[in-house]
Amino acid sequence: MHIKIAGFSADELLKQYQENLFNDFLPFMDEYIIDHQYGGFKCNTDRSGNNITNNKRTWFDGRGVWVYSYLYNNFKKAPKYLEIANKTIDLLFKAKTDSELWPWSYDQFGNDLKERSPDIYGNLFVAEGLIEYSIATGDVSYMHQAKNILFNCVKLYDSEDYLYDFDYRPDVSTIRKPRVLGHWMIMLSLSKSILKHEYDADIEALSDRCLDALLNHHLNPEFGLMVEFLEKDLSLPKDGLDQFVYIGHAIESLWMIMDEAIRRNDHALFNKSCDLFKYHVEVAWDDVYGGVFHGLENVNENKWLLEKVLWAQQEVLIGLMMIIEFTDDEWAYRWFDKAYNHVINTYPLEKHGYRLWNIGGDRKMTFQKEGIRIENYHTPRHLMLNIQLLNKIKAKWDESYGK
């Protein structure tokens, strides 16, 4: 058993994580991003905290409800967390029209800006927030609403009318009727959140369906990586998208499958998803400049999207910490050392005179002073989940080695 992670004791690393969450991220959100009057999150903000606009997005508001409800449920029963979540829920339902999908974006007061067509991601993130808020408040009506939203998304996803517009590949048609790895990923995550709280046979069946799609269909047997898009019948596309691996999504999906395997006490499922996670991380790693790439445009041509994004690094760190906690695997320690030190030396903006972390850039993560968006989901999720995992690891180490 190791007694250090990335060169730190569990106490030292835990302190770093807590500092990033409670003394950096949350105060910045409270001061600049949260709309305390009208609800929602003003994520169109620069690094100095200047709100470029007061507009909001369904994605970010649904995710924000989850973040502050999760904080309440797992860290501190602070009424202000629930107040932030509640006001955002009120705004979300004010923004909802008769359309089956929430609008893509809206102004400070909830009026649809009609910027672009919405997709089911927005609805799924609203459902994610409502699930956690229901657990926080004990109000089952929010759980019922979340389930209705989730199953309505599944119905729409299965219909011949559902179209998904994506901009990952400029050389192929962007309007299609696909199966999307990211859709299964979020539906699996929501199912897992519900099933950790209560049993529901229909939700269990949806979880099974998501696992089957991800592991038995999106996993391309030719090269062992999970492709982002399939045809409606789950067959591989024939226009080149059978070569497109949105590998950041695949890595994110695989730690979620590991977490679901732990919930199910299914060691075979854990081992399979763990092995796939390792392979995807190793393939995605940039041996020259460090960190993982998030998109592989063409596997056989080894053609990568070369920009770096913080969220992909954070999904790697969550999965690695999960493997350390669950298996004490030597590989996970080595890779956490590489990934964490790359992130902590590259993404925090303090050395440039700003708070928070940079959310993306070129392959070298060359600093650009301009910033137009503050990330309100992947960063706190990474920090919260790894704090929880570190507390479990610390408890094991304290028991083995003494405090």
Strand content of the residues, in percent?
Answer: 5-15%
End-to-end C-alpha gap: 15 Å
Radius of gyration: 20 Å
Give a short account of the largest sheet. 2 strands, antiparallel
Distinct helical segment count:
12
Quick one: how many beta strands? 12
Main-sheet strand order equals 1-2
Helix-strand pattern, N to C? HEHHEHHEEEHHEEEHHEEEHHEH
Shape from CA axes?
globular
Derived from helix and strand composition plus strand pairing, the structural class reads: mainly alpha
How much helicity do the residues have? 55-70%
Average pLDDT metric: 95
Low-pLDDT ranges: none
Any overview of this molecule?
This protein is 55% helix and 7% strand. With 403 residues, it is mostly helical. It has a domain at 1-33 and 307-396. Strands 1-2 form a two-stranded antiparallel sheet. Strands 3-4 form a two-stranded antiparallel ribbon. Strands 5-8 form a two-stranded antiparallel sheet. A hairpin with a 4-residue loop joins strand 9 (295-298) and strand 10.
Structure in a nutshell:
The protein has 403 residues and is mainly α.
